[in-house]
Amino acid sequence: MTLYQNLANRLREHIQHGFYKPGDKLPSVRQLAQEHGVSISTVQEAYRQLEQEQLVEAKPKSGYFVCSRKKDNLPSISRPPQRPLEVSQWEDVFNMLMNRSGDKGVQLQHAMPDMKAPTLKPLLKTLADLSKQKPELGLGYADIRGMEELRTQLCRLTVASGCQLHPDDLVVTSGCQEAISVCLRAVTEPGDIIAIESPSFYGSMQAIKAANLKAMEIPTHPETGISLEALELALDQWPIKAIFVTPTCSNPMGYTMPEAKKEQLYRLAQSYDIAIIEDDIYGDISYQFPRPKTIKSFDTDGRVLLCSSFSKTIAPGMRVGWIAPGRYRDKVTHIKYVSSSMCPVMPQLAIAKFIRLGGYAKHVRQMRQNYEQQRDHLLNAIKTYLPSDTKVSFPDGSFILWVELNPNIDTMELVERCRTEGVGFAPGPLFSATGKYRNCFRLNFSEQSSEKREWAVKTLAAILQRAVPLKANTVTPPNNAVLSHNS
């Protein structure tokens, strides 16, 4: 047994026997190193192991604490169809995207960050200064790979996720949606099969549809992510060309795959010689400290195409994303060129300066704290007001969570009724290739005040109470069951 494993065992025993209680602050890294005569890196590795077991959590500038909340009543492990399927649901996705009611009601359906944060002011000032002082920069062509200033700063950022990249390893895109679309086209041909988590982000689903691919949805655990056992069975049975995953702060459930499992997933892809497209768009706003590693950090042969953007950490309107495409760099660059040529210069330069001067680090640090508090508030409201059989995810980061209601409830019907009352959410069928998860939905908790969020949950609860007679021992209806009024 290694030194860090021995230390982790001691700490685990102290926690399990109540020596340290939920919420208690644990000894500092330096203190434990001195007391046990080990290195600081040994203590850090012991704490990292306990974090993976969800026994402890790190809080920036505060240290390590015993996890204060038990993750109970989580959504069910998904059980999607065991065959590749064509993606549908575009009309429903389009209708939701078009439903932007401005300030009317409480709209919790769109995964939008807090764009009113004071920590964004330096970025806005930089944009204004660039437009005023050097307006010509935004008028001409630029490097199709993206501005070198930005790519250099992106390399600095990815060190925190375990990657060592060179600016030439990166391609800047118009947001993560373009990054995903480009990567899918780079590693597949029309008609190929992509293995994905289930549920999975509807934007990714629609990118698969647009590339004329089929989706192989893999059972997914609400805490640890995609089932590697089910994935391996699918790889044995079907000619899958690539694996698409969001292993850190997934959308929509918010889980973070344990580090050891990320490496196992990489080794599995290696053994079948297929690519992994990794969406890390929420990675920088993980509540864990240090920031979780990416699958890309284990990549030794260039098979992982890492995608991300600043749409969830800064603002979607900046339209600045990027890819670290590994061995597929030349093909990705070509597809990016024929797709949209180059990206606007001004946002790239402004974000590069924002990162270089430390503004980005300060901003995401503040956002992580804010979002974690807002998560806890929304979870408490759901527990207080929604029916007792409601299941809900426990996000490790980001600002979205997944709710599973009684199987008799159809959220496609429910969303229409809630809309008339001024409450919006993203219904579950949008997150499946075939419209599964009809009794589930996703909520965003970043934009609205705690009072508005609580009002929205109360309103949802009232609609459920008067519209649906929840009966014990009810037989689960088929997927097309609808919400019925009381007679």
TrEMBL record:
HTH gntR-type domain location, by residue?
1-69
What protein is this chain from? Answer: GntR family transcriptional regulator
Q: Which domain of life is it from?
A: Bacteria
UniProt lists the family membership as follows: In the C-terminal section; belongs to the class-I pyridoxal-phosphate-dependent aminotransferase family.
* MF terms (GO), sorted A to Z: DNA binding; DNA-binding transcription factor activity; pyridoxal phosphate binding; transaminase activity
Keyword terms: Aminotransferase, DNA-binding, Pyridoxal phosphate, Transcription, Transcription regulation, Transferase
Q: Please name the Gene3D superfamilies in this protein's record.
A: Aspartate Aminotransferase, domain 1, Type I PLP-dependent aspartate aminotransferase-like (Major domain), Winged helix-like DNA-binding domain superfamily/Winged helix DNA-binding domain
